[in-house]
Specification:
Blueprint: E1 3-4, H1 13-25, E2 38-43, H2 49-60, E3 64-69, E4 77-78, E5 91-92, H3 93-101, E6 106-110, H4 118-122, H5 125-133, E7 138-140, H6 148-161, E8 168-173, H7 183-194, E9 198-202, H8 211-214, E10 218-219, H9 223-227, E11 232-236, H10 263-267, E12 273-275, H11 288-291, H12 298-318
Parallel strand pairs: 1-7, 2-3, 2-6, 4-5, 6-7, 8-9, 8-11, 9-10, 11-12
Helix pairs in contact: 1-12, 2-12, 6-7, 6-12
The structure holds N-acetyl-L-norvaline (AN0) and phosphoric acid mono(formamide)ester.
Binding site for carbamoyl phosphate: 47-50, 75, 110, 147-150, 277-278, 305
Pathway: Amino-acid biosynthesis; L-arginine biosynthesis
GO molecular function: amino acid binding; ornithine carbamoyltransferase activity
């Protein structure tokens, strides 16, 4: 595997899940693969889980790891070609990327949507430059539009906890004070469409996700109706994807607190499990009672980030 961005990059999902459970049984069994190999993790944005779980995954595989927070200690990077660099940006991405590539064997990059241009964000302008100019395999640690390591961990978690062969999984928008990216819901939709689940998306009008991620999923604007009989509730805020009104891209259109996942919402489900990628704002996205309930999977879900990252790095090491 040279690039990990979309669910298709993993190939057959059943095989990938079997590999994940194999890794989970003994996460150190592939230590030989990473000997004298270096993973470079580049963060343009904050992270707790991705930073720690991916470092742990690389160490599980016997790799060396270098972590760089681009905005803390590195030179400020220009990303646009043709700019006269007379501002505060000292270095261009076009030099920085091949230099970073020269110190490692595999690169992971986190670079969120800037919301400045829908076109640039959805064309994955930053990550595609890493793919093109680093000369190394690149895995996405949440880009402008996708968060595949999260969705793979989510899928592993659903597989572990599901009680029926084809569970009903509901992705629900929930309120948040600030504009958040669409990467998590985009990827989750893409992965659930590829998995064997009954998948429903619910959100207020105006929050329609890009059709390339929604695929054949059912979209239900009545949140309570969507929750009926659900086996898994996956809550997440996202800002306006700008599908119906491009001028609203990245805006907060609603802070409707009636969408907060509380016990009344969970009561209409099939005793559903509650999921969220974290970090989560309590009593905006989900109430204390629901996130602390025995049905909450947020901690095992986060723990599975180590497993998804170990499988992805293993696949990349095998292809070097
Ligand atoms: C980010 C987001 O919503 O995409 C990262 C989640 C994994 N969350 C925040 O910026 C709070
Ligand atoms: N879920 C997730 O990716 O968390 P971090 O932003 O803390 O890495």
């Amino acid at each position: 595997m040279r690039v990990f961005q979309n669910v298709q990059d993993l190939g057959d999902l059943k095989t990938a899940l079997a590999e994940a459970f194999e890794v989970k049984k003994d996460r150190f069994q592939f230590q030989h693969l990473g000997k004298n190999k270096t993973a470079l993790l580049i963060f343009f944005n904050n992270s707790l889980r991705t930073r720690l779980s991916t470092q742990k995954a690389a160490m599980n595989l016997g790799m060396n790891v270098i972590v760089l927070d681009v905005n803390q200690g590195a030179w400020k990077l220009e990303t646009e070609r043709g700019v006269i660099m007379d501002s505060d940006k000292s270095e261009h991405l076009l030099e920085a990327i091949p230099v970073m590539g020269s110190y490692c064997d595999i690169i992971g990059v986190r670079s969120f949507a800037t919301f400045e241009s829908r076109k640039d964000d959805y064309e994955e302008k930053i990550l595609n430059q890493f793919i093109k100019y680093s000369g190394k395999p690149v895995f996405f640690m949440e880009s402008a539009t996708v968060h595949p390591l999260q969705s793979f961990a989510d899928l592993i978690t659903i597989e572990e906890y599901k009680k029926t062969a084809r569970p009903k999984v509901v992705l629900s928008w929930a309120p948040h004070p600030k504009a958040l990216p669409q990467a998590v819901p985009n990827s989750f939709a893409q992965w659930m469409n590829a998995a064997d689940v009954d998948f429903v998306i619910t959100h207020p009008e105006g929050y329609e996700l890009d059709p390339m991620f929604v695929g054949d999923a059912k979209v239900e604007y009545d949140q309570m109706k969507a929750f009926e009989g659900a086996d898994f509730i996956y809550a997440k805020n996202w800002s306006c994807p700008g599908v119906t009104r491009p001028e609203d891209y990245g805006k907060v259109l609603s802070k409707d607190m009636s969408w907060t996942v509380d016990e009344a919402h969970m009561a209409v489900t099939n005793n559903a499990y509650f999921m969220h990628c974290l970090p989560v704002r309590r009593n905006m996205i989900v109430t204390d009672d629901v996130i602390e309930s025995p049905q909450s999977l947020v901690i095992p879900e986060a723990a599975n980030r180590e497993i998804s990252a170990t499988v992805v790095l293993k696949r990349m090491l095998e292809a070097l």
